[in-house]
Design brief:
It is a single chain. The chain contains eleven helices and nine strands. By secondary structure, the chain is an alpha/beta fold. It has two domains: about 190 residues, HUPs (Rossmann fold, 3-Layer(aba) Sandwich), CATH 3.40.50; about 110 residues, Glutamyl-tRNA Synthetase, domain 3 (Alpha-Beta Complex), CATH 3.90.800.10. The strands form three sheets. A four-stranded parallel sheet has the order 2-1-8-9. Helix 1 links the parallel strand 1 and strand 2. Helix 7 crosses helix 8.
Length: about 300
């Protein structure tokens, strides 16, 4: 009996959502292992979603290699591009109608407005002193444009992005690993983009729509996304969806302390396989790095599920 059939159907739904902009490095794979393990230990279901919405950045063949790498490590999925499932499709590039539906709901609530700021204007904002962790705060330049001012910009050929009108107040949540979090999104980030001027749906909206429709209630992902969570909570509230539980895991870094990059092929599985490492050896290395076992001894993903 495999791990999947041992799930207790506890109602927990976790996911791993890689982007095919490059092959998975060991940091991505460690996060995949932890997301999978967190859901499996809870007797939940594991969903694999491919975040290929930004098609200009997607590299040919990467999706297939990502899925093959995860299978090689012994990570299985209850729902995904290969498995199917009730909340598909499981590739963002095939979910455009759902994003448009969400945009329409937000517009109907008066929570979106068109932003005509040019790159030069945004660059001037970016040069302002003391930017926050996520860059400079957008000051709401286009928020109060009159219909005539918007029309003039349209006639001048400016195609707008769409921004979410952030309500005042502090967003709080408790991260399972990072503890209590609080962010005043209006004061630190400002109104943020949910659809780019080229029509591509922004990550912040796409991930909320996907998690909402797929009934994801457990999100385990890298710590680099911790500061994005308050924005996603605001969008989930506006769209009427429950807020998942969050666990943001530390990033894996190289010998210099820099986080791993998908551009560095040496940081992925290929050189390890070429050196003769087995899936169990790689899983042991990832598990030890995450503090799940004391030493990097070979162990299967399935064996980790049974450990406490």
């Amino acid at each position: 009996m495999d791990v999947k059939t041992q799930a207790r159907d506890t109602g927990v739904r976790g996911r791993y959502a890689p982007s095919p902009t490059g092959d998975l490095h060991l940091g991505n794979l460690r996060t995949a292992l932890l997301a999978w393990l967190w859901a499996r230990r809870a007797g939940g279901r594991c969903v694999l979603r491919v975040e290929d919405l930004d098609l200009p950045r997607v590299r040919a063949g990467v999706t297939e290699r990502m899925l093959a790498d995860l299978r090689w490590l012994g990570l299985d999925w209850d729902e995904g591009p290969a498995e199917g499932g009730p909340y598909g499709p499981y590739r963002q590039s095939e979910r455009a109608a759902l994003y448009e539906h969400a945009l329409a709901r937000l517009r109907a609530q008066g929570m979106l407005y068109p932003c005509y700021c040019s790159r030069a204007e945004l660059a001037r904002i970016a040069s302002a002193p003391a930017p926050g962790e996520d860059g400079p705060r957008y000051p709401g330049t286009c928020r109060h444009l009159t219909p005539r001012e918007r029309e003039a910009r349209e006639r001048a050929g400016r195609r707008p992005a769409w921004r979410f009108h952030v309500p005042p107040g502090v967003v709080t949540f408790t991260d399972a690993l990072c503890g209590p979090q609080a962010q005043d999104v209006a004061a630190t980030v400002g109104d943020f983009i949910v659809q780019r001027s080229d029509g591509i749906i922004a990550y912040q909206l796409a991930v909320v729509v996907d998690d909402g429709w797929m009934k994801i209630n457990q999100v385990v992902r890298g710590a680099d996304l911790l500061s994005s969570t308050p924005r996603q909570i605001l969008l989930a509230r506006a769209l009427g969806w429950p807020i998942p539980t969050y666990a943001h895991v530390p990033l894996l870094t190289d010998a210099t302390g820099a986080k791993l990059s998908k551009r560095d092929r040496a940081a992925g599985l290929e050189p390890l396989r070429a050196a003769g490492m087995t899936p169990e050896a790689v899983i042991g290395r990832l598990a030890a790095g995450a503090g799940l076992i004391p030493e990097p001894v070979p162990i299967s993903a399935r064996e980790l599920v049974a450990m406490r």
